[in-house]
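R.M. (postdoc): so does anyone remember the format we settled on? I'll just put the structure tokens first.
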């Protein structure tokens, strides 16, 4: 069974949703038969990346401007989000978070998929942004973080320089539009069910179990008695 997840590495609910999904998957009896695939979704493609604190507005100012609220209300919203993250075992330090364009980060996640390290790289980027205050829109930083997650630094640098996976990122975003995905995280389970938002682990587990139960096994009809077993195989065709 395949679970596809559209998300962004600067989306707080995406990180929380990742933990909740992992908790659901841990309790799922058939977890070893689940393939998880991460898809690209940019919350704000126009974001200009900064490399250090003070180069641009901090997270509270950005939030206040985006939603037309006071800084005090923005800070309260950040505190509430941080508490929700703590409930999932995450440490959010959004006072450290740096404005980051995530297009290159998404390319990196596609590169990681080719090496079987997509989950590790996704996790590393999320922790870097939300806990460590790393500039995940900076290519040198991305190369270092990717290497820490197990990728070859030289290959990462080359892929980012040539924009090798740019088309894959755009394809993910186009597919999100086709599927009607307007917010993330968004979970697509076996192309049968879509779940929007960082839903509780119990709800995600229920969707996994329902999707699995509907995977009807193939029923073979024995036609040999009627002499109609007209098939071809590796050893030839029935005569």
């Amino acid at each position: 069974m395949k679970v596809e997840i559209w998300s962004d590495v600067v989306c707080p609910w995406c990180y929380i949703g990742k933990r909740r999904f992992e908790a659901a998957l841990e309790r799922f009896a058939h977890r070893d038969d689940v393939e998880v695939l991460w898809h690209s979704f940019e919350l704000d493609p126009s974001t200009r990346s900064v490399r250090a604190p003070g180069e641009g507005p901090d997270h509270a100012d950005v939030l206040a401007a985006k939603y037309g609220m006071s800084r005090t209300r923005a800070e309260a919203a950040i505190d509430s989000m941080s508490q929700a993250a703590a409930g999932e075992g995450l440490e959010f330090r959004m006072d450290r978070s740096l404005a980051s364009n995530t297009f290159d980060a998404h390319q990196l996640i596609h590169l990681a998929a080719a090496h079987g390290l997509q989950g590790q790289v996704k996790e590393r980027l999320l922790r870097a942004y939300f806990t460590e205050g790393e500039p995940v829109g900076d290519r040198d930083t991305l190369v270092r973080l990717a290497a820490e997650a197990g990728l070859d630094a030289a290959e990462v640098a080359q892929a980012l320089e040539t924009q090798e996976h740019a088309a894959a990122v755009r394809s993910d975003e186009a597919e999100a539009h086709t599927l009607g995905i307007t917010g993330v995280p968004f979970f697509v389970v076996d192309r049968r069910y879509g779940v929007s938002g960082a839903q509780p682990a119990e709800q995600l587990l229920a969707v996994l179990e329902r999707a699995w139960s509907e995977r009807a096994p193939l029923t073979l009809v024995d036609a040999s008695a009627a002499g109609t077993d007209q098939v071809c195989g590796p050893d030839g065709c029935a005569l």
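R.M.: ...and that's the designed sequence above, right after the tokens. Also worth knowing: Residues 61 and 71 are 6 Å apart (CA to CA). The longest strand covers residues 2-7.
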